[in-house]
Amino acid sequence: MLRRLATAIVRHRRAVLVGALITVLASFAYGGKVASRLNNGGFADPSAPSSKANTLLDHQFHTGSPNLVLVVTARTGTVDSADVATVGRQLTDQLAHTAGVDGTASYWSLGNVPPLRSTDGRKALVLARLTGTDDQVNVRVHQLEPGLIGRHGPVDVAVTGQAPVFRQIGDTIRADLARAEGIAIPITLILLIFVFGSVVAASLPLAVGAMAVGGTFAALTALTTVTKVSIFSLNLTTALGLGLAIDYSLFVVNRFREELRNGRSPDDAVIRTVETAGRTVLFSAVTVAVSLAALLVFPLYFLRSFAYAGVAVVLIAATGAVIVLPALLAVLGHKVDALDVRRAVAHRLGREPHRAEVGEGFWHRLATAVMRRPLPVAAAIIALLLVLGAPFRGVHFGQADARVLPAAASTRIASDVLTSDFRSGESNALSVVAARGGGAAAITTYAERLSQLPDVARVDALTGSFAGGTQIAPASPSGQARFANPDGTWLSVVPVATLQAESPAGEHLVHAVRSVASPWPVLVTGPSAQLVDGKAAIFAKVPLALGIVALVTFVTLFMMFGSLLVPTKAVILNLLSLTATFGAMVWVFQSGHGAGLLHFTATGTLDTTTPILMFCIAFGLSMDYEVFLLSRIKEEHDRGADTVTSVALGLERTGRIVTAAAALLAIVFISFATSGVTFIKLFGLGLTLAVLMDATLIRGTLVPAFMRLAGDANWWAPGPLRRFYARFGISEHDGSDMPIPDLVEPVPVPVGVR
User: Fold this and answer.
1) Architecture of domain 68-160 in this structure
2) Over the stretch 511-542, which tens digit does the pLDDT of each residue have?
3) What 3-state DSSP class applies to 102?
4) Reported pTM
5) Where are the domains of the chain?
6) CA dist., res. 595 & res. 415, Å (int)
7) What is the percent of the chain where pLDDT is above 70?
8) Quick one: 627 exposed, middle or buried, by C-beta within 10 A (0-12, 13-18, 19+)?
């Protein structure tokens, strides 16, 4: 089938290119403004108890947990000064009469309640809730902040709370990633010339990348008409679009050059390239797409959005590499090496470009050395990976809060003030909602029980405020208006200021509140409750996601190679490599080693969603390189080479390619580590380590060692499966009439890949 496809591409090369150009232009025209149609949220499970509680607070009580906090600081005197109190009430009234703002209260409007006053008396709080969707809240923060932040007569006002914090996180990420792309892309383009060897060849991945990015923008635009898509998925689109375009193009162009050197005409070389490298690219794309598609099982549309973008960009990049790139190569022919940089440099230095014979080169020598002592090498590398992965046993997952921002960020500074200068954490309060229930005595008894829990500063309810099991303030008119409802009631459980919502202590408080006996069915929400429910929603689906990835990857590799051992080994080695990567990330980002060097604040947790994303992306890319290597090993084995020879030749022919591709992709990922937001640093540094470790340590040592130990068993399968593979497997078939040249003939090193 691939031969027929390749023949058609060669015959209609110009029509293919014209059609591709029209498609790319149409894709950018339709999807060019996709960012304006994407959403900022997607971090909550809509079916979780905390989400249901938020819905009840909104629809039944027309209130909710405060997500906007003003820290009002008296320039002189205390917050009880008459002029300061006047401005404080004015700010409270201003917010209360602003569209989209509910539940406004302050130190002054509640009768100078002590918990809303700092320990030094110079600061007080104004609390409010911004209503609407995540995007509507984000817009309201943008509109309100300029009129709130800064000096107001005798006071200075700073803004924090969940809504401003997440808005600043989003703004910082977008600015940081735009800067990172501005750094990484020019460096990548320059290195492409040296990797591909010629200016003409180096431009080919750009065509594939433009097709992948433009097509994915169009696909995401179409998806926004039927579902929500996170705006952060665009960053994966550009990174993977360029990275996979380089991977696939490098593999295809390298094979095309190899076929030209073997004496084939350009047209025949294209056909043979599609049959071999094209087949590998398609299988590789399937494994990467499946890894990313596993994100669809999670209920958070933030994670599902990366599946939408990832699957689209992978499949479109593969299509470009198998159809459009061969058409370009058919048009270029031998001109693919035009403007040869290596030849020009060698000529200037008075040298001839080196042409290596089969059996030469670092990767061949490495594979041969490993296979002389496969057991000690495998044992040593596995021990190293297990040591690197050991810290992962102590991983603690959390969610982003103000501490992921740079220390100089405005909302981070205000949030630190809440922690250091106030006794209670107003912005981290839990809301306990009883949709149906009430009665003053029952409310009082329940509030007293809740107020006795560790880490609870006080409980506010319809019947007053409570702390340590006793009432500390009577019911107020504003409190009755806030908590009253004909059908039910709700209570606000305010933790101590030192308790971080996104922390193990915050999670423990949620479980403690939910375990207190209630006279009515209740639902608990708030930042800590959303963390608990978010983790539960994610971890409940992790086994299913892992199972899908492992099963489909196993089946795909079996259909390609007809072996049981090869896919088993591939899955195990990839998991081992990723465990080491995650262990290193726990050691750095959770424990804080290198925090000063990398400029971040260790919170004692890892963001829950980031490792999930990292796993799916890194696993897919690892399988990408695995397929590249195994396809060449299998090709040599099918020609009659023994295990040692086929592994050495396979690694020799792909080692340089895989390493170059991984290095170029690592440049894109490491640029993410320049971000000021901690979990983006984690994402960038983690994927860089995973890609480089897999492309070098795993492919260069463990794969040759395991294949040498297994010998002919590498390609074994039971009789029924062998017959199934013989009938349904997708194996390479060289339908050409040109014999393969003798492998002992000198084969030049691919131009630009050393």
Assistant:
1) 2-Layer Sandwich (3.30)
2) 999 999 999 999 999 989 999 999 999 999 99
3) strand
4) 0.85
5) 1-31+197-355, 45-64+430-543, 68-160, 358-388+562-719
6) 20
7) 94
8) buried
